[in-house]
Amino acid sequence: MAGQGAMIAIVGQNLGDAREIWFNDQPGALSPTFVTNNSIITRVPTEIPLEINNQMKLVFANGDSLLHDFVVDISEPMLSGMLSEYVNTGDVAVIVGNYFYEPVTVTFTGGVEGEVISVDDDVIEVRVPEGAEPGPITVATNFGETESEFWFRDNRNIIASFDETTEGLWHGPDYIKADDPVIPNISGNFIRVNRQLGAWAWFEMYVGGADSDIALETRNIPQAAFANPSDYVIKMEINTLAPLTGANIRMYMGQDVGGERGETYYNWTPNIDTNGEWETITIPWEEFYADNAEFAYNPNGYGVSFHFSGPLAVEANFAIDNMRVVPKANN
């Protein structure tokens, strides 16, 4: 047994006249350099067989052939992520990974199967069905099935949904929108910004102390993220109508917004252009936490200051939603 693309050595006698090698119904490659009377070195084809007989066949110069039992271990689907983890019912979600060999099925949490629109080896487009719920998705082929470690419509540990009350916020309520003529909702309210910012402009997008309603959601960060920060990431959905090239977004979190945010913050330089589509982006929680002086866990929550300030002018025309601190997906 060997996997797709694996290099193998065939050892025996009278192998020097081999001219062809087949694995199931797929041809392998034979190089004279690697064919001797006693051995053949070759690779298992990466192409998927249409007919599986679990046999390897050698064809020799005189037309004779030799069959040998051999199982090609064809990979089950590998799921890396989604272009956007939040997609409305009826819209098309894009799943990224590998080993997506047709026929393919995509099942959402809630037990409903999506309509597969298109399949490449590393990308699936699937229409989100009625009844799809937050949670992992499962992709199945004839060669196995895989459940994602990431979640569709991930609602774990939300730290900024923009759907909560806003009492005590310094800045932000003016930019929280229930709808927009250009950018569609994906999960209730979202932050919507459309401003031309000059070099070193100071634009406060979302700011509030630990005693404000911001803490109602920042308290959702699990204690495990403080104990093992490398195991977590910040995720959010973003939709840009102009490239966020050159932007510097200073992201503070802690207990003393007014006293600390000037010197303590994670400097996010997104350089993102989603061309008017929602996409899920990731920030390493370990870096964010370290740059915020590894503030102590507090079950009552934290203040935040997310504000623009940097050396380049920026056309800030975008929306963000569903900020969350979630376990890092490894598959």
Automatic annotation (TrEMBL):
Pfam families: SGBP_B_XBD
CDD domains: IPT (cd00102)
GO terms of molecular function: polysaccharide binding
Superkingdom of source: Bacteria
Surface glycan-binding protein B xyloglucan binding domain ranges (all copies): 152-327
InterPro entries: Ig-like_fold (IPR013783), Ig_E-set (IPR014756), SGBP_B_XBD (IPR040475)
Protein name according to UniProt: Surface glycan-binding protein B xyloglucan binding domain-containing protein
Species: Pontibacter diazotrophicus
